[in-house]
């Protein structure tokens, strides 16, 4: 367990953006014997283990050669954060700042008074360069209480347009953000065409608590699930029954879940259906055989779940308490914000029982709007039975979230068991 947790902490630390997360997963797949295939390349026929990567998305599969269906582990690589605007440079009151755009459902207050780094991708005529600058470059200073005397009565109120631009140097520094990107990538300024850059917390992931049984880190939602799903598909590479497995094992890590999944690399797009059909074609299936395989297939959508908060117990459904370090969570919602139903939940519970993994059930309160996952989008795109599951956590969408040490193993074991028996 300790090695697995350390591996997760390392995974998160080197993955400050979805693009880095996909590449980190690719590195682990490489080590397990997978081979990268470009989207424009044909998939070799027969058995094999491959992956294709597209920005912050990666799809991998392991084909034993005699399969007649797919078992898909899905998760997402993106997290709510602050992204640098195209015209980034701002000057105000003697400070040089960067203009930011809010991405996803950010808990804005959690980004105040923290040292932030920068990471992302930069494009030029010949390709793309990823960079990761872990230096403490930026800070969003909170207004002193002496200048906001009513904060205790009225609470903190942040205008995302006016109050979130971080400072990064003092007046007199003539360096531009474009110049900074040139320094980070080694490219001439005039060769840089575009970029996707985001801020991140430079504080490292850690174990914490009196007994060291909890984890504090950025991007637990949803890099914990991305890590566990990647770990699961690499583990089954060593199974002696690999060649006779009836299901093609698939890993699908998508970008843009936090903003609705509607993109070329999101779960609501055509990326996964296209890859699955191409896998089927490489196995010699015609269109009818492929559609029949989908009808036998199974998808597990893994995304972190809400643990019951000790200070806000009233915000949770009272008959569905969720505890950290007490097992994986199956998410149910009658209004299809989660894709789980009785038929899709049953194979997952059977897989957990086979792996001796405890299971909890999450149901949202009727009087609060429920979030969603890639589950409903994937189920709708493929027409495949889908279950929504996850590891419990607190502080979801904060710059620094928390979860339980034991649940890293619970989720990984559960997902590996799904690939073995579902």
Structure, briefly:
By secondary structure, the protein is an alpha/beta fold.
Describe the structure.
With 422 residues, the protein is of the alpha/beta class. The chain folds into two domains: 2-79 and 218-421, Aminopeptidase; 81-201, Roll (Aminopeptidase i, Domain 2). It has helices at residues 2-13, 18-31, 151-154, 177-185, 220-235, 271-282, 287-295, 342-354, 374-382, 405-421; strands spanning 35-36, 48-54, 57-63, 69-76, 81-92, 95-103, 116-124, 127-138, 167-170, 194-201, 206-208, 214-217, 247-254, 298-302, 305-306, 328-332, 359-363, 385-390, 392-394, 401-404. Helix 5 (220-235) crosses helix 10 (405-421). The mean pLDDT is 96.
Number of helices: 10
Helix content: 25-40%
Averaged pLDDT: 96
Count the beta strands: 20
SSE ordering: HHEEEEEEEEHEHEEEHEHHEEEHEHEEEH
CATH homologous superfamily annotation of the largest domain: Zn peptidases
Write the layout of secondary structure elements.
Layout: H1 2-13, H2 18-31, E1 35-36, E2 48-54, E3 57-63, E4 69-76, E5 81-92, E6 95-103, E7 116-124, E8 127-138, H3 151-154, E9 167-170, H4 177-185, E10 194-201, E11 206-208, E12 214-217, H5 220-235, E13 247-254, H6 271-282, H7 287-295, E14 298-302, E15 305-306, E16 328-332, H8 342-354, E17 359-363, H9 374-382, E18 385-390, E19 392-394, E20 401-404, H10 405-421
Parallel strand pairs: 1-2, 4-13, 4-14, 14-18, 15-19, 16-17
Antiparallel strand pairs: 2-3, 3-13, 5-6, 6-9, 7-8, 7-10, 11-12, 12-20, 16-18, 19-20
Helix pairs in contact: 2-5, 5-10, 8-10
């Amino acid at each position: 367990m300790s090695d697995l947790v350390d591996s997760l902490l390392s995974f998160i630390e080197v993955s400050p953006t979805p693009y880095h997360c996909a590449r980190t997963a690719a590195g682990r797949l490489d080590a397990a014997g997978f081979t990268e295939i470009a989207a424009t390349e044909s998939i070799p026929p027969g058995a094999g283990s491959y992956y294709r990567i597209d920005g912050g998305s990666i799809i991998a599969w392991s084909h034993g050669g005699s399969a007649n269906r797919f078992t898909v582990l899905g998760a997402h690589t993106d997290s709510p954060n602050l992204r640098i605007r195209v015209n980034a440079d701002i000057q105000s009151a003697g400070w040089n700042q960067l203009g930011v755009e809010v991405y996803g459902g950010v808990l804005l207050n959690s980004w105040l008074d923290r040292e932030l780094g920068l990471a992302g991708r930069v494009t030029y005529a010949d390709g793309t360069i990823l960079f990761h600058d872990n230096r403490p470059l930026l800070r969003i200073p909170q207004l002193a209480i002496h200048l906001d005397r009513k904060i205790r009565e009225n609470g903190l109120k942040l205008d995302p347009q006016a109050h979130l631009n971080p400072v990064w140097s003092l007046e007199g520094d003539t360096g531009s953000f474009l110049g900074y990107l040139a320094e980070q990538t080694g490219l001439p300024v005039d060769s840089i065409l575009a970029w996707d850059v985001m801020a991140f917390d430079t504080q490292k992931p850690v174990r914490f608590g009196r007994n060291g049984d909890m984890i504090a880190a950025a991007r637990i939602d949803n890099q914990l699930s991305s890590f566990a799903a990647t770990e699961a598909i690499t583990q089954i590479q060593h199974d002696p029954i690999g060649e006779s497995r009836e299901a093609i094992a698939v890993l699908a890590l998508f970008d843009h879940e936090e903003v609705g999944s509607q993109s070329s690399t999101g779960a609501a797009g055509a990326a996964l259906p296209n890859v699955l059909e191409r896998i089927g074609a490489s196995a010699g299936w015609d269109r009818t055989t492929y559609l029949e395989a989908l009808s036998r297939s199974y998808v597990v959508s893994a995304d972190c779940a809400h643990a019951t908060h000790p200070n806000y117990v009233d915000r949770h459904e009272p008959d569905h308490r969720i505890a950290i370090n007490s097992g994986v969570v199956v998410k149910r919602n009658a209004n299809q914000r989660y894709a789980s139903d009785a038929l899709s939940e049953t194979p997952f519970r059977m897989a957990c029982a086979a792996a001796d993994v405890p299971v909890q059930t999450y149901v949202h309160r009727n009087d609060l709007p429920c979030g969603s996952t890639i589950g409903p989008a994937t189920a709708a795109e493929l027409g495949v039975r889908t279950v929504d599951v996850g590891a419990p956590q607190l502080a979801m969408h904060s710059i620094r979230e928390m979860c339980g040490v034991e649940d890293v193993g619970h989720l990984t074991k559960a997902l590996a068991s799904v690939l073995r028996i579902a």
